[in-house]
Amino acid sequence: YDETNDKLIKATESLEESEKQFKEVEGDVSALTRRIMLMEEEDKKSADNLCSTITKLALTSKSADNVLKAVKIVESTCMNNEVTIEELDKNLRATIKMAVDNEQKLDELSRKLGVQ
Questions:
Q1: How far is residue 79's CA from residue 85's CA, in Å, rounded to a whole number?
Q2: Which helix (H) or strand (E) holds 50?
Q3: What is the C-alpha separation between 54 and 14, in angstroms, rounded?
Q4: Cα–Cα dist 16/20, whole Å
Q5: What value, to the nearest 5°, has the Cα angle with vertex 45 and ends 40 and 49?
Q6: pLDDT recorded at residue 116
Q7: Residue 1 gets which letter from DSSP?
Q8: Residues near 42 by Cβ (< 8 Å), separated by ≥ 6?
Q9: How far is the C-alpha of 67 from the C-alpha of 61, rounded, in Å?
Q10: Widest Cα–Cα separation across the chain
Q11: Full-model pTM
Q12: What tens digit of pLDDT does each residue of 32-87 get?
């Protein structure tokens, strides 16, 4: 009887220890489950944030492309204006030279007419 009683006590102690370990493991599993849920929620937020950032990046890139197109148009206009300015400057110099030459001819003719 004592031997059976000792076995029963040992079995009961073993059962209690197993139940204690089970509760600890169950608590760990619950904590890990909550942690997984929080991490999944954080992952979803990060994914949403990534999508939003990618969308903003695409819109900014498109806007930058439009700015670059506008810059090219302005550069082209500037180059055309520079060519026009050079042509006008060349014409102005030629006109000034013609005016100076004509003024000299007028002076010469005036002297000749005044002398005669």
A1: 10
A2: helix 2-115
A3: 58
A4: 6
A5: 145
A6: 60
A7: -
A8: none
A9: 10
A10: 167
A11: 0.55
A12: 999 999 999 999 999 999 999 999 999 999 999 999 999 999 999 999 999 999 99
Res. 1: pLDDT tops 80: no
**Distance in angstroms (rounded) separating the CA atoms of residues 37 and 45:** 12
Name the helix (H) or strand (E) containing 89: helix 2-115
| Percent share of the chain, pLDDT over 70 | 98
Integer CA distances (angstroms), 20 to 15, 30, 93, in order: 8, 15, 105
What residue has token string 């492309």?
65
* pLDDT value at residue 43: 98
Distance CA 101, CA 29 (A): 104
Band the pLDDT of 2: cuts 50, 70, 90.
confident
Place of tokens 């700015």: 67
**Close Cβ partners of 45 (under 8 Å, ≥ 6 residues apart):** none
